[in-house]
Design brief:
The protein is mostly helical. The radius of gyration is 20 Å and the shape is globular. The termini are far apart.
Length: 127
């Protein structure tokens, strides 16, 4: 049997999604899943499966799809879980990885480099 310690700090870092996912992974709980729980479990992306389909290492996946390597490792170890936006992004990456790669390779004009002149005139003095 594997023994480990779990501190309050570790528990405080868990999100509701983390707790639900871990409960759903418990073999003793699988026989009692509700329809909602079954659907929720199915909605969690399998990052390792996505990486294998794309034939990428963790480092390559993180770099190409702009995740941190720590996020990728934590998700694959089920220590943390992607939020709903990240799950949607991973789903699109699973189904349309070429489109995502093309979109990420294009330069964008959405990046803010300098505040606009109109924004600076509304600054309030802290006096």
């Amino acid at each position: 049997m594997l023994a480990f310690t779990l501190g309050w700090g570790d528990l405080r870092q868990l999100t509701v999604a983390d707790v639900v996912y871990n409960v759903l992974q418990d073999p003793a709980y699988k026989s009692e899943l509700t329809e909602w729980e079954t659907q929720y479990k199915k909605s969690m992306p399998d990052l390792k499966r996505i990486r294998r389909k794309l034939k990428l290492t963790q480092i390559e996946f993180a770099s190409q799809f702009r995740f941190s390597l720590t996020q990728v490792r934590e998700w694959e170890r089920h220590k943390q879980f992607p939020n709903p936006i990240q799950r949607a992004y991973l789903q699109v990456t699973w189904t349309e990885s070429d489109v995502v790669r093309r979109a990420l390779s294009r330069p964008t004009d959405l990046a803010v480099t300098e505040p606009e002149e109109s924004l600076t005139k509304y600054q309030v003095d802290a006096a």
